[in-house]
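sorry to bug you again but im stuck and you know this stuff better than me. below you get a single protein, a line of residues and a line of whole numbers that encode the local backbone shape. mainly i need to know what kind of three dimensional shape the backbone takes. anything you notice is useful, everything is just below:

***
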Amino acid sequence: MTTTLGLPGTIGACLFDMDGVLTRTATVHAAAWKETFDAFLRRREGPAFRPFDAVADYDEYVDGMPRADGVRSFLASRGITLPEGDPGDPPEKDTVQGLGNRKNALVLQKIKEMGVEAYPGSVRYVEAVRAAGLRTAVVSSSANCHDVLVAAGIDGLFDVRIDGIVAAERKLPGKPHPDTFLAAARALGAAPEQAVVYEDALAGMEAGRAGGFGYVVGVDRAGQAEALRRHGADVVVTDLADLLDDTVPDTTGGGAA
């Protein structure tokens, strides 16, 4: 049984990823990762340079993860290990933290130049969720989450924010671990089975499945619907506004309960 929000009637809390679910920033992140990794790989590999794929590599190795985890994950796929370094490493330093800082500087530059846009369908859906009396949280690995929400004009739509800064302060592991989503559910006073996770990243799907949440919604912005289902989505939509139509089916038989 689903409500007119496309959710089981037992749901009382909604946990939204930000990049790619609420805001059109996933492509900005992908471009920043590509610029960061390509510059590093050119220096390291020379004529054998193989560029970072802003679709396949982004989806598989970095999407949804904290920056340092994304650096380690992608470099491991190329058989590369770097020193960890320090959080204050300059962007030009070839350490895990240095590359992460380079990527962050590029993201901030691109956001400043291009601005931030929220998906209109997502805004409509979150507003409908709140009008129905459900509580809302944004759960993001980004340390820039608050600034992005403010820039997009949607910071007032969420009761709780668990972002990269909060995760670091509380030492919460990032996605695909469920800890940040579980922290958001607790802050909203909901058990995991009473909460729904909205994600566009494969790592986010795995976090939803691992956390035992009541429902996991995959948002397919990149033509990876089947992969989202395999990684734990109960239902996949191309836009959150699709869930305002109560005919949206459960296509997987329950992937995250």
About this structure: Confidence is low (pLDDT under 50) at residues 247-257.
